[in-house]
Structure formats: C-alpha cells, structure tokens
Amino acid sequence: MDSATAGFMPAIELAELIRTKKVSPVEYMGVLLARIAELEPKVNAFAYLDAGRAMDRAKKAEAVLASGGRIGRLCGVPVTIKDFVAVKDMPAQRGSKIFVGDRSIEDSPFVSRLQDEGAIVLGKTTVSEFGWSGISRSPLTGITSNPWKLGYNAGASSAGAGAAAAAGYGPLHQGGDGAGSIRMPAHFCGVFGLKPSFGRVPYYPVGVGDLTAHIGPMTRTVADSALMLDVMAGPHFLDYTSLEAGPANYLARLDYGVKGRRIAYSPDLGIARVDPQVAKLVRTAAARFAELGAVVEEVSTSWAKDGPELIRFFWSAHMSRHARHLPKWEAEMDPGLVACIKQGQNISVARYLEMRERKMAYVANIHRWFQDWDFLLTPSVSVAAFPAEKLMPDHWPTHPWDWLMWAEFSHPFNMSWNPAASVPCGFTSDGLPVGLQIVGKRFDDLGVLQASAAFERLQPWASNRPRL
Q: Which residues are catalytic?
C-alpha cells in the first residue's frame, strides 16, 4: 500500500479491509506514520504525535483479529484528537506555553468510545491558544499550514484536525467548535466538518464558555463523519449537558436525500461582508439543491442583526477568565488573545446578565425562524485562506483581536445549539477551497448529514487532494 492510498482511504473502507484481513493494521500504520513523518515538517498538524503507542495499538488490533476476539467498528482505524481534549497519558497543552508538560490522567468519554471500538489515537492536533481565534497558529506550536497553500491559514481552533484531514493523515479527526472551530478549518482546508447539536457528543470537563463548545467529526467524506458520530454520540453521566438520546444510526440512513425539503439560502445573513469569489461559489452550490428536489429560496434573516454585538461581548468576557495568567505570562501569549482578555476584564456581573438576556431572546428568534425551514445555507466563512501570520486578510479592516469579522456565519449556531456542517463547494481562482454551511433545526443532526450526503453525491469532493 502506498502513502497516498493509506492516508486518504476512507474509514469505512479501511475498517472493512482490516476486518476481513485484507489489510494488516500493522502494515497500514507503518505506511501512514511514514507519510506523516515525511509531511509533518511542512504541515505541522500535530502538537503531540505518539508513533510508538500507535504502532503498539496496531499490533494489539492484529492480535485481536488473529484470535477471533471482538472486532470493533473502528478496529485499527487511526484518529486524531484535538489538544484541548483529555487522552490518558498524553499532553493537553491548549496551544499555550503556560501548560507545557500538562498530561491527562483519564480519557474524555468520547475518546473512550472511539478506543472501545478499536480506533487508534495517533496523537493531539494543534490549536490556537486557548481556542481564542480562527487562525492556525499558537505561541506553543507556531504555524499550522493549510495543505492547499503552505503558510496559509488552515483555520482554528481545530487547526491541526483540518490540516491533518486535508493532508491525508488518516480518515478520522476530532474537532471542537465554540464559534466555528470545526466549520472554519473544514472550509479553509476543503474537508467535511460537522458541529452536531449541543450535547450530542459528551464533553468532559464541561466547558465554561456559557455552553457553546460542541464536539464533532472532521473527515474527508460525509459517511466517515456519520460513522464517527455514531460511535461518539450519546449521553454520559460526567456531562450533565449531554443529550439523553443516543445516536440515530446516522450511517445507515444517509441516503434519504432532500426531496421536498424547504431550504433557505442567505448570502450574508444581512450582516456579513463576503469576498466575491466565495459568494459566487456558495450561491451556485445553494442553487444545486433544487436539482435534488428541494425548494430553495433566498431569504432575509432578521434575527441575525444582534449577533455581531453579542458574540464580541461574550468572546472577550469569556476569554477574560485567562487574565490570571497575564502578570507572569503576557509576553509569552498571543498578542491578540491578550488584547481580547483585556477588553473583557472590566465587564460587571450585571452587564453580563443583561447581555445574556439579550442572547436568550436572540436564540429564541433563531428557533422561531427555523419553524418555516428545514435547512439554512450560507457561506461557511467570508474569505478563503490567507497568510497564517496575519489576523485578517490584507483587504479587510484591522483590529487588535476581532478576527470574527470574517467569520460571522458560524457563531449564531453555537449560541443556538443547532447542528451545522461545512461541505466543500469549490475553489477560488488561486486554488483555495471554499465551504458551504448547512444548518439544520436543533436535534436534526441526521438531516444535516443527509443534506450533506446528497450534495456530496451531486458534487463530490473527496478526490480533490492538495499537492504536498
């Protein structure tokens, strides 16, 4: 098996080949690790790679296959985990020099579920410091490159997950999304990213950002994400916010399609500036849903007008909890993060609760609006990838920390808890990927996957690979 075959093989195909003993998990892992070793100096997707542990787990998988023991759905299939998430005996440094050397003493619940089904954790992928920005760099790990153009933004905070998926570092990658951090890297890197409904995948320790952080899959195909979500989803006693319902057998029900569905399309939510090439590609993609039998209509979204003020308030307010690190660490921290922290430091409790009341009304308006629609289509991000050393593209306004001005499409659905995906829908004239966002009603993760799969069948993307 050659490097590209190993790196880009879908999880569903790989798991079947391993189960039927047509592919050795040890041989596969050896080829994949060699690919990562060759490409990683260019891409820099890993904050921590444990090749020895991965090979050891591959040997154990091979022994299980030989002995006739229980074969999990992901036996021998590699997966990467974001560097915010607990994996026992692996570092969790959160993209910050402050936490260099911190190691987890237990697995997060969904990590245990992946491993119980035979998945092999390769290591931890890079993040922006404390997940504060959508830029693929941190003081700890430097720049994570977009595989489509080295040195360019791969998106964040799930930077390494998006880059690893695009670079062919195996089929399954876990992302986390507090304001777009699955959908942004998926958009920039030309892969599929799903932010499920809040609580669908249990998260421990539970986040403190006013319950906006979602866990989800980042893959090259919709089917692989459906399989990964099948394994990760379901309630867990350590996450009091986790949904009671278990997985909806997403993989087996992907082919339902969107015939007869009412689909709204908004080019800008009435609030966002969008680059012309991105806008054109997304408009064309949205129109194609009519070919699938859906009713597609361009709409206004009156509820969106309060979003920019709300997200900027809460983003700085929540990041201000890191102010305790400034006296010792400010010079070693991301300057944009420091500026964001300082803006939020003087917010009173009364002001916070006042804004939270406004947020609850905003969220209610989103859900009220969705009573008339099955899905909403928008750009995933306003711009294609740009140099990762910058906070903004050159043609956008400057600001000490406000990267959100090019990412206005994602944060509403972190606050409202709706499922949302980014599907690749084309390339700019510079060969940079663009994503279409598909948002569903709350709890309709299956519907978002079905709509994504329908578009994937109409306009496949998995064969597109960056030239590394």
A: 82, 157, 181
